[in-house]
Amino acid sequence: MEPILQGFSSQLITVLLGSEKNNGLTASNNIISIAINDNGDIFAGTFNTGIFRSIDNGESWIQINNGLTLPNIRMIVFNDSGHVFVSSAPSPFQGGVFRSTNNGDNWIAVNNGLPFGAIFTVSIDSNNNIYAGSGFGSGVYISTNNGDSWNATGLTNATTVSLTIDKSSNIIYVGTLY
User: If 0-12 CB within 10 Å is exposed, 13-18 middle and 19+ buried, where does residue 40 land?
Assistant: First the structure.
């Protein structure tokens, strides 16, 4: 049986049916999100110390924050080209989306058209359109050009805390606070 990864708000990554894997992570690394790319690299987004990557099935972790200016990572996703996108929401007044085109080695902010403030979630549909869920009443935004620019969707005036996309139908499911 393949190991299943479990993330939780603590300093450890646990491989179910295995043992704790935290070489390179410390007690201050509160893990909020975990994602695995097509190469099997594991990415862990933390509450206050940015992003960590493991290329050896979780045996060791390195911090990969070059260019990442907001280290509170809420969600990690990958497009078909292998680009990594993360949402950041360190406070109600800061946040955004960051993109890496080199497996997390370097990051750039891609926020042109996004509202000022927290971005809680990000997801990608089967056409590689990227959706960002904005906190504090701004709704959902879409990018059709790899994050270079963003436009509001029909869902506005909602605090979006989660969203996922059924890639077989491109139906978007959005979780809001109100």
Answer: exposed
What percent helix, strand, coil does the chain show, rounded to 5? 0, 45, 55
Contact (Cβ atoms closer than 8 angstroms) between residue 82 and residue 95: no
As given in the structure block, the two tokens for residue 66 are 């070059």
Q: How far apart are CA 91 and CA 76, in angstroms?
A: 18
Beta bridge partners of 15: 5
pLDDT computed for residue 109 by the predictor: 94
Q: Which two tokens stand for residue 62?
A: 């390195």
DSSP 33-98: EEEE-TT--EEEEESSS-EEEESSTTSB-EE--TT-----EEEEEE-TT--EEEEEEEETTEEEEE
Alpha carbons 115 and 141: distance in angstroms, whole number: 9
pLDDT along the chain (178 residues), means of 10: 38 48 70 93 91 90 92 93 91 81 97 86 95 87 96 86 90 85
CA quadruple 148, 149, 153, 156: dihedral sign? positive
Q: Which pair of structure tokens corresponds to residue 45? A: 């987004």
